[in-house]
Every structure is written in C-alpha cells, then in structure tokens.
Amino acid sequence: MNCEHAKEQLLDYLNHELPEAERPLVAAHLEECTECREELLALQRVWGTMSAIPVPEPSENVRPAFYAMLSAYKEETQAKPSSWAAVWQWLQAVFTPQQALRLAYSLALVGVGVAVGFWLNKQPAQTADNQQLATLTKQVADMRQVMLLSLIDNPSATERLRAVSYTKELNNANPRVVEALLSTLNHDENVNVRLATLEALAQLAHEPAVRQGLVQSLAKQESPLVQSALADVMVQLQEKRSVKPLRRLLNDPALNEAVRGKIKESIQSLSNGQAAPSTSNKPYDETFHPTPSDGAAGTAV
Amino acid sequence: MLRVKAGDVDRMGLLFERYHRKLFGFLYHMLGQAEASEDLVQTVFYRMLKYRHTYTGEGEFRTWMYHLARNVLADHVKKNRHSVRHTDVAEWSEKIGGGAGADEKLQREQEVATLHRALAHLSEDYREVLVLSRFQELKYEEIARVLNTTEGAVKVRVHRAMNELKTIYLRIEN
C-alpha cells in the first residue's frame, strides 16, 4: 500500500468505516510509514477533539412540551372534544407560540392575497373609468360648442347671452367658435351681448387668433361701454398692437369724453410696459395729434 | 415507530425518550442556538406524528428522523434568514478565550473552543455530514439514506469536510 492510498483511508480507519479486510493493510502501512502516522495523529486530534465539543442538554421544558403536544395531538385526531375542558386543552395546544406564529403567517398570507387581488382588480377598472370620464368630458365640451354655434344666431338677446356663457367652461375653443364669437362681438346689436362676448373672448386670449380679432375689433366698436371694456382688456393682456387703433379712436371727434380719458390712460399704461416712467407723461400730449413718425415711435418704444 | 403508525400514538413517548437528545444535538450543531433547537425538536416530533403514514418501515427510524429534521431545519433557516447564526458559540468561546494562563486544561479547552468555532464556520453541507457521522454516529450508508445520495458520495464529502475543517481550524488558531 502506498502513502497516497493510505492517507485516503485514514479517516475511514479512524471512523470504523473501513471494511474489515482492509484494516490490517492500513495498520501495516502505518507501522512502517512515519509520515502517515503523523497524519493519522493530526487527524485523530481533530476527530477526537470534536467529541469534546460540549452540547448543552436540552432544557427541562422540552419534555413537558412534548407530552403536551402529544396529548393535544391525540385530542385533535381522536374523538371530537367532548367537554369544555377538552376544547380548552385543544385551544391551549393550538396556541403554542409556534402554532400561533404559523396561524399568523397563514392569515398574513391570505391578507396579502386579498390585498393583491383587490389591487389587481381595481387597477384596470380605474383606468377604464378614467378613460370613460375623459371621453364624456370631451363630448360635453363638444356639445357646448355646438350649442353655442346654434344659439348665437338666435333672435332673442337672452338666448345669445346664454350661448356666450357656454364658452366659460371651455379651455380651448375650435376656430369656428372663435369666429362666431368675434363676429358677435363686432356685429351684435345688443350691448350686453357684446360685453359678455368680450368677457368670454378675454378668457380665450391665449389663442393668437383671438388676440388678433380683439385688436381689430377696436375700430369697429361704437358703444362707449364696449370701447372702454375693450381698452381694459387690452391693458390686461398688454397687447401692444392695440396702441395704433386706440390712437385712431382718439381722433374720432364723436368719441365719448369719458371713454377718451379712459383710452388715454390705457395707451399710457400700455406704453409704460416698455417705456421708462419718467418720459411717459410728456409724449402723451403730443401723441394726441399724432404724426406717422410719432405713432411709430410710440409702438417702438 | 410502526406501532405508532398503526395508531398507538402513546408509543411516540418512547421514541421521544430515546431520541430527543440526539436530535437536539444534531439541531444544535447545525443551528448553534440552543433555544431554537429545542423548538425545532418539538416541530420534528410533531411532524413525525402528522406524517407517520409516510414512514415505510424500511430502513431505520433514525434515518427517517434526520430526514424530517433536515426539512424542518431548512424551513427554519428560510424563515430566519436574517437572524444571526451561531450566537451561542460566539458567546461561549469568548468566555473561554479570556484566560491567559498556560494551564494545560485551559489549553485543551481553548482547542475545543477553536474547533467548535471552526465547525461553525464550515459550510452547511460539510457540517451536516460531519455532525451526522461524528456526533450522531451514523454510518456512511445511513447518512446516504438521510441525504438521498450514495455511500460513495457521502464518503467523499466527509473527507472534504474534514480537510476543510482542519484548514479553518489552523487559520483560527494562528
């Protein structure tokens, strides 16, 4: 037997796992080989020390706990509990910490399952609802626009006012609606309707077409009320393009005196948006008799 | 156990008296925690009752017992993956490690403590075969049945485990 083979057998030799026939062979090799003897000693030291590793005795609780478990198990599997005492005993057995833990674990699992189920169920329904809501909202908005278009030509001023009021809830109006509103603003015979329309259009002023229409409308208004309201809107929007038509209005000898003052104020505040405040007062007196160059200066400044 | 299986549940007491120490030892070596090991002893015996119909009578009872114990252990480890293992060993070896005397008895105790720690550092698979072989005194053939493998495979694993243990032991010692 060579050393390599013997070394492989040493542990089994120690462990009594070696077949009886091979034991003498290993023993014989050990007799003549110091190296293997040392190896065996080293192995024996570890192997022997292992048995000295202390294992604590199981505590005294283990035995009674086992017998309690055993009798509980018997109660559980044999006859149905016949008395309250048995039920109580069974309950006690079921609610040992470990069982309670298991129970809690199961309940938690069920809870998680239910929660996940709810969540999964709710998710698509919610989005479907949202989609439905979105389409409905859009439909209502479309409906309002159609209503507006059909009512705005109504002979009754009240109906036309109502039509204009529909735009209040609109964030975006389609071009036809804008056109209809502008045309109402310019041509409606009723001042109240025109004022309401102006109010509605002011809300939609973020659209370039609306702004443009409002500026152009300045020249077409004759009612002092609408004129001054328009001037207000122009100031509110800081619409510089309106300065020219406003000045043109000042040239109109038929202009209401109150409106004239109002328009002057508006031009001033529109120019102030860009011009330095100190110079703003003076040019005014001159702009009242405008020349082309002055007008250009007014808008450019 | 066959009589237990036949319905004589009281016989389980006998098996408990005979085996619970060994079982506790196995669990203790695998877990390193005495208290948890006691709980698991309970669980293993409970499963024996509950699954007694799976005991075929072939092979020894203790092979079946260790088989169940391994499953219980695996469940326990899964559940407590984050808890610190081998706390008891650490505490215990600290107490021993404090002494500075060159007393022979103390030195021997140090040696044992070091080996205990080395064993705790061994991988689960290796520790398992060593515990079954050395502490539970199972034959390779029985271990093979517990682990559902061949005797040859067990033999190889025990050898490798021993080498690994020696290496760890020497590393800790120095």
From TrEMBL, chain A:
InterPro entries: Anti_sigma_zinc_sf, ARM-like, ARM-type_fold, PBS_lyase_HEAT, Znf_put. Residues 3-37 form the Putative zinc-finger domain. Residues 266-301 are annotated as: Disordered. Residues 266-282 have a biased composition (Polar residues). This is Anti-sigma factor.
From TrEMBL, chain B:
Keywords: DNA-binding, Sigma factor, Transcription, Transcription regulation. Residues 15-81 form the RNA polymerase sigma-70 region domain. Pfam families: Sigma70_r2 (PF04542), Sigma70_r4_2 (PF08281). It comes from the Bacteria. Coiled coil: none annotated. Gene3D superfamilies: 1.10.1740.10, Winged helix-like DNA-binding domain superfamily/Winged helix DNA-binding domain. GO terms for biological process: DNA-templated transcription initiation. GO terms for molecular function: DNA binding; sigma factor activity. Residues 115-165 form the RNA polymerase sigma factor 70 region 4 type domain. PANTHER family: RNA POLYMERASE ECF-TYPE SIGMA FACTO, RNA POLYMERASE SIGMA FACTOR HI_1459-RELATED. Belongs to the sigma-70 factor family. ECF subfamily. This is RNA polymerase subunit sigma-24. It comes from Hymenobacter crusticola.
